[in-house]
């Protein structure tokens, strides 16, 4: 079991930062495949406005799938604009179809291109989770055990192991979407996309803030950025018998894609409503845009052509403009968190903790 699923319930005190400021801000980034270009563009424009990494304005980052990749990059203070360029220039490499007998024998895409891109020295290189400068959590599913896992930085004394994992492995584990990519295997375990249970990770991040950082509901402020929500709904003209043709049409490989799409779409709506109810007025900021029928045909988890880029980049720029035009949102960008406390790894605050971790 990963560090993230452990932790003594008695240790719900303030461990994640040097002090407990009145405000604790969370940035939660949803999954959505190539639609994450929309998310990256919003953040890039916000960083351009503040002239600093967006992570310097948040106490905790959370991200799933493409959102997890972005959260890891932001936690390293990699400029979001660099991630925009990466996905804009190499999206077709990431989603280049391979022979798979229409996805029946194996996933239609390989993670090799994404692995190589993320392994570049100006992205993750060979660094591990311990290199992150800001607290972050990234969901995945350990398919070897059937358990959900949350990979985390060592911002709590009970998180003894995850900080050793390579960032590339964590990124590939959270983004191994069923029906699109094969499972990612590392440390003798198989992982699949965290979007199956936490595509919108805001609720997990709120739990993390309360349980492991010791923050109260009154202190929490959440910014959740989506990936241009699209609703998967039934076509009443289709076969409704619940078989493969009903779910996937004449191509059986389309079935897991559609089921995955329904799962992440429904989660996005559910988490949005839960956070609106759970947080106080003015504490929850949901940044997303629903697709019109025409634009929905141009974008998808695996569409990377010029039409998709036009919709995603243009919509992202417009949504960032909307954010910056809102006085309450601009106030969030004036928040400066207390320096985070990491207990193990390269950024541990004292050598004793670091030494104990290596002996663990």
UniProtKB/TrEMBL annotation:
Give the matching PROSITE patterns: PNPLA (PS51635)
The active site annotation covers 65, 193
CDD domains in the record? Pat17_PNPLA8_PNPLA9_like
Q: What does the UniProt keyword field contain?
A: Hydrolase, Lipid degradation, Lipid metabolism
A Pfam family hit = Patatin
Query: Where does the motif DGA/G lie?
Result: 193-195
Renumbered ranges of motif GXSXG? 63-67
Mind telling me what this protein is named? CBASS cGAMP-activated phospholipase
Q: Which organism is it from?
A: Lysobacter brunescens
* Taxonomic lineage of the native organism: Bacteria, Pseudomonadati, Pseudomonadota, Gammaproteobacteria, Lysobacterales
